[in-house]
Specification:
Helix content is about 25%, strand content about 40%. With about 190 residues, it is of the alpha+beta class. The protein has an eight-stranded mixed sheet.
């Protein structure tokens, strides 16, 4: 299903704690114009890094480049409709970004899927996957997108600027910060 269901009035927004049916975002689409991949071996058990990654509303307490993460609606899998705002640092300055995403969590796979439904990156698909490697975890983040619907320059903007500069810049910092937090937790007595 495309939309999560809730008891919200038509045109309204459900309370953030109202659990709705999870989003079915399906597998990651192939063949998009822009694909970025960020990958890291995290020195922590899978359950530790996965738990940190899926608790997106706690990211601003762990990651200095996130301004806020707010659920507009929660779903029964721990995902929902989530608004995120982060800064892409350029030296001492940060360029503010925001996006609205449908989020689904698959604890069995384990994976986390997002589909951007608001902001410049509307239509972008994102997948976080986690794989045990001995006592560590390989975390991979894939972003796939055909770019904004800007005549003539949309794909160029996505492949030359938005993907490599903004998407990769934020994802790389997010993954590094969550890895540090997971490694600290894994090595606490």
């Amino acid at each position: 299903m495309r939309e999560a269901r809730s008891g919200a009035p038509e045109g309204g927004t459900a309370a953030p704690d109202a659990a709705a049916t999870s989003y079915d975002l399906g597998p990651m689409p192939l063949g998009r114009a822009m694909v970025t991949i960020d990958e890291r071996l995290v020195g922590a058990p899978l359950h530790v890094i996965f738990d940190l990654a899926r608790r997106v509303d706690e990211w601003p307490t762990l990651l200095s480049h996130y301004r806020h993460v707010r659920f507009r609606q929660r779903t029964d899998d721990g995902g929902g409709l989530v608004q995120m705002a982060a800064d892409r640092p350029f030296g001492p300055l940060g360029w503010p970004t925001w996006w609205l995403s449908e989020m689904s969590v698959d604890a069995e796979a384990p994976s986390i899927r997002f589909r951007h439904v608001g902001g410049v990156t509307t239509g972008m698909d994102v997948e976080w996957t986690f794989r045990e490697v001995g006592e560590a975890t390989r975390v991979k983040i894939v972003h796939a997108w055909d770019g904004p619907e800007w005549p003539l320059v949309g794909i160029l903007a996505a492949t030359l600027v938005i993907g490599p500069v903004f998407v990769h810049g934020i994802a790389e910092r997010t993954l590094a910060g969550l890895a540090r937090a997971a490694e600290r937790r894994a090595h606490q007595p």
